[in-house]
Amino acid sequence: MGRSPCCEQDAGVKKGPWTPEEDKQLLDYIRENGGHGSWRRLPKLAGLNRCGKSCRLRWTNYLRPDIKRGSFTADEEKLIISLHAAVGNKWSSIATKLPGRTDNEIKNYWNTHLRKKLFNMGIDPVTHRPRTDLNILAAGLLAANANGGASTQPCWDMNAIKLQADAAKFQILQGLVRVLATATATPAAPGFDLMTLLAVANGGTLVGQQPPAAPASVDHHTLSRSRLGQYHQQYYDDDLPPLTTSGGTPPVSKVISTADGLLDSMVGGAFPAAGDGLSSPEPIGAGAHGGPSGSNRNNTVVAVTPPPLVEAANQGHRYNGAAATSEVMSSEPTPASSPLDGTSNAFGCMNQQLQDDDLINDVDSSFWKEILEQISLAPSSDNYSSEM
DNA sequence: AATACCTACAACCGCCTTTCG
DNA sequence: TCGAAAGGCGGTTGTAGGTAT
User: Fold this and answer.
1) Pairing of strands A123-124, A129-130
2) Would you tell me the Gene Ontology cellular component terms (predicted)?
């Protein structure tokens, strides 16, 4: 269906930065008329040569009286990072937890400050995990050293594949967590939302809002303060958990028998907490900008298709050179995704490829078993029933 | 002093969902 | 029930100011 740009029919309307005079006109009109009935009609009524959409954006992002100007505080920074780790680029959702801040402002701040900050700290701002480029480089260098300078290519490829497998596992967990959050929390507690919960869990730094009472039905699914505290420690104490290492036991092998276990694994263990790009649950048919579609704006079931393995191999090759550490931050792969029905095929294919490799075969069979058990939420699991 | 480059952020674009006649 | 209008959202671009060469 689609629809034409709102200003297409208004050829000749002014674009670009607003002048103080225009601001005053818009402010005066809204003050006198008590807000806006129709943004499309507003420009004419206010005597502005702007399209309604431009007026709305100017009002919501700049002129609104309740907007807090000035730099972000450390608490706000932490909160943004935590919330971004939990929900990804859901700027409007994040903005609801930072009164006085607009989604646009938070988005800009993330893109210009926080993303670089995390990146420079060795954290991938997309996955909120240690940067994989550094891990691959380090693994390659270690292997080169161990081999006395022999070819490192096989080792690099292996690490790339294992990283890719980790990413795929994470995406499954991300989907599961959202399913659990939606299925358990929402119906039992209208008004309760995961965002608020996360904000409260974030060291009590929820700005200007009272922490909601967590409904009893989600007690066992509630993020504990310690979890996000642990997450913060990853940033501020440089206590970063390791990614899968060659020959080691993958972190996913930790018992994942409850929703809490899932979150534990994500926040404090093996997996990225959330984000976009590699971990982004982008649905098929994302916009021309590559942005998420509206269907992904609620906490609905997300797709968890892993990136293709061939990419992993290519990444290994890509880093096998002088520019190994110069990974561009914006190169965030956005794997095509599909509803869960497509996931099995994708993962079946990937698992088949993984099984071709003895080194990681045992790892993944246990992982899939755990996942399948988790999906069914079988009460027969001792750990699960004891926590419930 | 001039130019190129970088950074920050306001504003725009195009897609989506919701609303309403 | 349907389709158009309206509003919302996230990604991207444009621009002004600052800094480096």
Assistant:
1) antiparallel
2) nucleus
Give the separation between CA A263 and CA A267, rounded to whole angstroms: 6
| In chain A, alpha helices (H) | 20-33, 42-46, 52-58, 74-87, 91-95, 103-109, 115-120, 132-146, 153-180, 186-188, 194-201, 225-236, 259-267, 309-318, 340-355, 358-376, 382-387
DSSP for residue A39: T
Q: At what angle do helices A194-201 and A225-236 cross, to 10 degrees?
A: 60
Q: Is the four-CA dihedral A27, A28, A33, A34 of positive or negative sign? A: positive
Q: Specify the nucleotide whose C1' lies closest to residue A283 (CA).
A: B16
Whole-number distance in Å between A213 CA and B20 C1'? 36
What's the CA gap between A129 and A242, in Å, rounded? 9
A1 touches strand C (CB under 7 A): yes
Statement: the CB of A103 is under 7 Å from strand C? yes
Q: Name the closest residue (CA) to the C1' of nucleotide C4.
A: A3
Q: What is the mean pLDDT of chain A?
A: 52
Sign for the pseudo-dihedral over CA of A83, A85, A86, A89: positive
Distance in angstroms: CA A80, C1' B14 = 26
In whole angstroms, C2 C1' to A1 CA is: 12
The backbone torsions φ and ψ at residue A165, rounded to the nearest 5 degrees and listed phi first, read: -65, -40
Using a 10 angstrom Cβ sphere, with 0-12 exposed, 13-18 middle and 19 or more buried, the burial of residue A114 is middle
Q: Which two tokens stand for residue A204?
A: 């009590």
Say whether the CB atom of A7 is under 7 angstroms from strand B. yes
In the block, which residue shows the tokens 């996913």?
A252
What are the DSSP calls for A244-263, one per residue? --TTSPPGGGS---SHHHHH
Query: A306-361, pLDDT tens digit by residue?
Result: 333 223 323 322 222 222 333 333 333 333 333 233 333 333 333 333 333 332 33
Tokens of A230: 């642990």
Quick: pLDDT tens for A74-118. Answer: 888 888 888 888 888 888 888 888 888 888 888 888 888 888 888
Nucleotides of C under 7 A from a protein CB: 4-12, 14-16
Helix axes A74-87, A225-236, angle to 10 degrees: 110
